[in-house]
Each structure stands twice: as C-alpha cells, then as structure tokens.
Amino acid sequence: MKLQQLFLRNSLIYLIASIAVGVIPFIFIPILTNILEPQELGKIGLLELCIAFSFPVISLGLHGALNVEFFNLKKEDFSSYVFSASILPIFMGGISIVALWSAFYFLEIEFALPLNWLVLILIIAINQFFYQTWLVITQCEKRPIAYGLMQFFMVLLNFGLSLVFITEFNLDADGRLYGLLVAYLIVGILSVIFLLRGGYLTLNLNLNYLLGALKYGVPLIPHLIGGMSIVYLDRYFIAEQLGAEKLGIYIVAVQMAFSLILIQNALNQAIIPFVFEKLGLRTIEADKIVSKLFFGYILFMGVTTILLCLSSQYIYEYFIDYKYQASQELVKYLAFSMFILSCSKIPINIILFEKKTYLLSFAAIISISCGWVVFDYFISKEGLRGAVIASMILSLVTLVIVSIFSFRIRKIKWI
Predict the structure, then answer these.
(1) Are 351 and 359 in contact (CB under 8 A)?
(2) What does the pLDDT profile of the chain (415 residues) look like in tens digits?
(3) 10 Å Cβ neighbour count for 207?
(4) What's the distance, CA 391 to chain centroid?
(5) Are 179 and 154 in contact (CB under 8 A)?
(6) Where are the alpha helices (DSSP H) in 320-356?
(7) In whole angstroms, what is the distance from residue 264 CA to residue 342 CA?
C-alpha cells in the first residue's frame, strides 16, 4: 500500500476512534452538570490536576524513548528495553510518595482535598504507564484499529464506572476517583498481559538500556510538566483565587475545548510513525512529504476549531445545566488556545526525533515560569476571562519557543 493511502487509512481510523472516544466525555458533561454542584465539579478538576502532574514524575518521560527505540532495535532487544524501562516507574512510585505527600498536605489545607487520595493516585499513575506503553507500541506497529478499540474500552470503563460510583453510591468527587482507579487497574493489567503475549516484555534487565532510557526520558520531565501546566495550571490559580465553585463552572468550558486535544492526539498518532520514517531519510523529497503532512494537520485542526466555536452555543442551550451557562463565553478562547497548542506538536515531534530532549526542558522551564506569572496576574484582574487570556498567551509562547529550537536543529524545507 502506498504511503499516501496508508496514511489516509490510518488517519481515518484514528479520527473515527478519537471521535468515538470524545463522544463519551461529551455525554458525561451534561450528566455531571445536572447531578453535581459546581463545588464538587471543581474538586474533580483538582483531582484530574493531581493525576496529570503525577504521571510525568512516575513515567519519567519514557514513552518518548520507547517510540524512538522501536525503530532502532531488534524485537528481542526492544523487549529487554521495555522491561528495563518499566522498572523505573515502579521505583519512582516509592520515591514520589514523599513529595506528593507534602503536596497533598498543602492541597488539603488550601482546597480540602482528602489525603487518602494519595496512594490511589500513585496506583493510577503506575497502571497508566503500562497502558500508555502498550498504546505506544501498538501505534509504532501501525495497528490503529487495536489502538482505537483499547482507547474506547478504557474511556467507556472510566466514565461508566465513575457514573455508577457517583449516582448509585452518592460518592460525588470520590466516585470519580474510584472510577479512574478501577478502570486503570483493569487496562493496566490487560496491557501487561498483551505486552507479554506479544513478546515485548521479556524479563531481561539491561543496565545500558535502563540508563539510556533515563538519559532520554528524564530531560523530558520538565517538558511534560510544562505541557500539563499549560492545560492544568489555570485550575490551580482559579481554585486558589476564585474558589472551587468557580473552578467547577470553568471545567465545563475546558471539557468542551478539550475535544480538540483528543482530535489532535488522534492525528498526531497517525502522523508520528510516517514523520519519523521520513525524517530518518534526511532527503529534500522526504522533508517535502513531512511538510505536506504538517500543513494538512494544521488546516484540519483550524477547521475543527472553527466548527467547535460555532456549535458550542447550541450545545450549551440544549444540554448544559443553567448553573454552568456562564462558562459558554470562555469556550472560543479556550478552543483557540488548544489550536495553538496543537500546532506546537509539529516542532516538538522534530525535536523528539533528533533526541534533543533537553531543549524541550528549557522550553518547559520558560513556559512554566511564564504561566505562573500570566495566570496569577490575569486571573486576579479578570477572573475566569483572565484565565482563558492567560491560556492563549502561554500556548503562543510555547509554540514560538519550540519552533525556534526545532529550526536550529533541523531545517525542514516547508515548500
């Protein structure tokens, strides 16, 4: 099958899977807005914030290394690489508990989050690592159907179980946590079984592979945390300055705009294997193919962003409870912010291929520093509207920085 045909087929499958996966959270939003008060929804937002920042610390950015080494190592060597790398998140779970305990003590005082969430979030993060490992390998094998089915199964479990715990057992925010926990335990165990059956998890520890994975992955931690900061740091400042009730209102708009990230991930998953293969050729013709893929990606994301902005008012009118209507005006700003952020995936992919991950760390440090300032300032001055303005500024800063770094290490012929 020709490259163009294979790319279009895989892109279509990833897109269909992403839409199917994205529909479930969309259905979940109006249900939650009708059964939960804004303060409880705000606590759920803080829970997702804690999980989002725990995962990069636990995973050490190792999935980027797996994505690259899949194409560089023989299968038996890659299997040893996977096993060697998989030891690290379990080890990090023990180390992280002290740091996270301190963070949770602060969160309990500031936001009334219970400390007994700590261990459960660590278990979620470790299982998430194995789930993501299986997804990365499946993506590298160019098996989009298996990838999509696993994602759909995970999202169905995630939100289905959360809904049961919230509605049937009246657990509110705790119900969301228990839904996430059980879902990730199931897919984490399944992922380990699939990796063993596929010959990708041989019990063969190689210290060189372990150190190599650390060398590649550790510099990515600031980058991963920086990426999470762009998406989640606003929640921290809203909760601190405006309270959990305002955060609950804000979360509804975020979930609407976050559908763009789901689509962006689907397209990026389809593009990465082809981009890495073509970048490895280091020819003008291969670079032209890469540039066409990227331009198509930007065009599609732009059109999708416009469609979301146009349709959001009807979604709010017919599906979202009146308590959350104030968040409608925020959607278009957040959608534009997500579009800018999705464009940054292009230079980031180039930097990852060239294994210059330390540059992403520098970019992340700058972005986090900038984010801390702009979110604090604009939210204190403009409230929720200030949060979306700060989000757009931070996304743009990130795009500019990674684009400069990418151009310095690899000059792609874009036309």
Answers:
(1) yes
(2) 555 666 667 767 776 776 666 667 777 878 888 888 888 888 887 788 778 778 887 888 788 788 878 888 899 999 999 999 999 888 877 776 666 566 656 655 555 567 678 778 888 999 999 999 999 999 888 888 898 889 889 988 998 999 999 998 988 888 999 999 999 999 999 999 999 999 998 888 899 998 888 887 777 777 777 667 666 788 889 988 998 889 889 988 888 887 787 777 767 766 777 787 788 778 888 888 788 878 888 898 899 899 989 988 888 888 888 888 889 999 999 999 989 988 998 888 888 888 787 888 888 888 888 988 999 999 999 999 999 999 999 999 999 999 999 888 887 765 5
(3) 8
(4) 16
(5) no
(6) 331-343, 345-353
(7) 6
Return the amino acid letter for 87.
I
Q: Amino acid letter at 145?
A: I
The structure tokens 């804004």 sit at: 38
CA 384 to CA 327: how far, in whole Å? 8
pTM: 0.75
Alpha-carbon separation of residue 189 from 119, 126, 144, 151, 199 (angstroms): 18, 11, 21, 15, 16
Contact between 96 and 57 under an 8 Å Cβ cutoff? The reply is: yes
Structural contact between residues 58 and 118, judged by C-beta atoms closer than 8 angstroms: no
Determine the angle formed by the axes of helices 259-281 and 3-35, rounding to 10 degrees: 160
Contact 49, 240 (CB under 8 A): no
In this structure, what token pair is assigned to residue 277? 């293969």
Q: 182 with 24: CB under 8 angstroms?
A: no
Instruction: Dig out the tokens for 325 from the structure.
Output: 């209507």
Torsion of CA 384, 339, 20, 11, to 10 degrees: -170
Structure tokens given for 63: 């999935």
* C-alpha 115: how far from chain center: 25
Element (H, E) at 388: helix 384-409
- Rounded alpha-carbon distances, angstroms, from residue 392 to 173, 266, 366: 29, 22, 15
Residue 281 CB neighbours (<10 A) = 12
Structure tokens at 91: 């080890």
What length is written for the chain?
A: 415
